[in-house]
Task: inverse folding
């Protein structure tokens, strides 16, 4: 039986149960196949999170074993601003964790890293245990130019030592190829499309646009509010629901109040099962970001049959590849986004076609088969 070890900088853990859900989605999809899979990682706990932990025994080592899926982790309280030192400490902890994993579960055939950051462990494991590795890069830090100098040096070493480098959008594939002179292969993130059902049939008296994202500058809900106001402020047949929490909440509330618009609502954080219901009761989805490496929320909305509007911000261009799915517009352009919202509301879309497209291209089944074939080829060779 093939044995794959996944190592990521983030994964749901006893303190942060929503961290790295996109990695968890992929792992769970792979675990449904006839392979042995493990998850290993040293995960950050901020000082703020550390102080909130009532049971300090949650910090340090933990494990979770389910059939052919074994999770083995360590929660590390990071030192603020000491990024290079934290990375070094996490590497040393990771080496011990890796040895414990091998003693308990055996030596993996292949390691799959999610982002370059824990990749020092891959370089070490490749040299010491002759275990090959692959990398899926999710980080936006290189595109946004927020990466530190040592990030570039480490990333280059990790990519050069990898059997295959994977990027989750076509734009990221091209960008990383050029920046690091390393070959990247496009394979999108896995999305649990089965969790989302086709939108309810029937005409609603009020048609809902929905946006789901952190409330921050990058997600640019301020642009969306202005665009929606321009398009529908005098039309009570449309509403905009903004789902999420974040640092821009108060500013967005103030903006809505100053515009004196009643049909825009901030709903705050909503649990996944409730979000699925909200999507099913909506007509359209809109993403207004400045940058996205992928765009999981777009796939979730399309799994419900919703047509979508998105800014051209990286990942969405690999998703909205047909005008039967929705509309792409330039980022940070309020007039163009406003016109796209109006056009979306006037067009007729086949909701079943949109859902089928999402399942065929981004579902667990579709992508896990491709990834397992990639694993097999590397191990065989």
Result:
């Amino acid at each position: 039986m093939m044995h794959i070890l996944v190592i990521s900088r983030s994964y749901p853990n006893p303190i942060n149960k929503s961290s790295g859900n996109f990695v968890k989605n992929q792992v769970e999809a792979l675990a449904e196949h006839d392979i042995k899979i493990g998850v290993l990682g040293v995960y950050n706990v901020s000082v703020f999170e550390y102080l909130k932990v009532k049971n300090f025994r949650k910090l340090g080592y933990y494990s979770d074993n389910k059939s052919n899926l074994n999770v083995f982790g360590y929660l590390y309280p990071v030192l603020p601003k000491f990024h290079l030192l934290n990375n070094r400490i996490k590497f040393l902890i990771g080496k011990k964790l890796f040895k414990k994993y091998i003693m308990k579960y055996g030596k993996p055939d292949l390691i799959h890293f999610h982002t370059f950051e824990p990749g020092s462990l891959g370089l070490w494991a490749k040299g010491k245990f002759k275990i090959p590795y692959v990398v899926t890069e999710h980080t936006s830090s290189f595109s946004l130019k927020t990466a530190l100098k040592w990030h570039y040096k480490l990333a280059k070493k990790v990519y050069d030592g990898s059997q295959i480098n994977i990027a989750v959008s076509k734009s990221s594939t091209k960008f990383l190829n050029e920046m690091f002179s390393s070959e990247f292969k496009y394979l999108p993130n896995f999305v649990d499309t089965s969790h989302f059902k086709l939108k309810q049939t029937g005409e609603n008296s009020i048609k809902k646009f929905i946006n789901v994202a952190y409330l921050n500058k990058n997600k640019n809900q301020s642009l969306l509010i202005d665009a929606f106001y321009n398009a529908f402020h005098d039309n009570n047949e449309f509403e905009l629901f903004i789902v999420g929490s974040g640092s821009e909440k108060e500013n967005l509330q103030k903006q809505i109040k100053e515009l004196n618009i009643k049909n825009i609502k901030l709903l705050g954080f909503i649990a996944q099962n409730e979000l699925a219901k909200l999507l099913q009761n909506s007509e359209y989805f809109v993403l207004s970001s400045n940058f996205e490496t992928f765009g999981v929320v777009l796939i979730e909305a399309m799994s419900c049959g919703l047509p979508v509007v998105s800014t051209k911000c990286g990942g969405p261009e690999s998703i909205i590849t047909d005008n039967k799915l929705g509309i792409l517009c330039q980022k940070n352009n309020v007039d163009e986004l406003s016109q796209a919202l109006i056009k979306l509301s006037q067009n007729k879309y086949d909701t079943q076609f949109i859902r089928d497209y999402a399942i065929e291209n981004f579902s667990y089944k579709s992508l896990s088969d491709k990834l397992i074939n990639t694993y097999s080829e590397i191990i065989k060779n």
Q: What stands out?
A: The radius of gyration is 22 Å. The first strand starts at residue 3 and ends at 8.
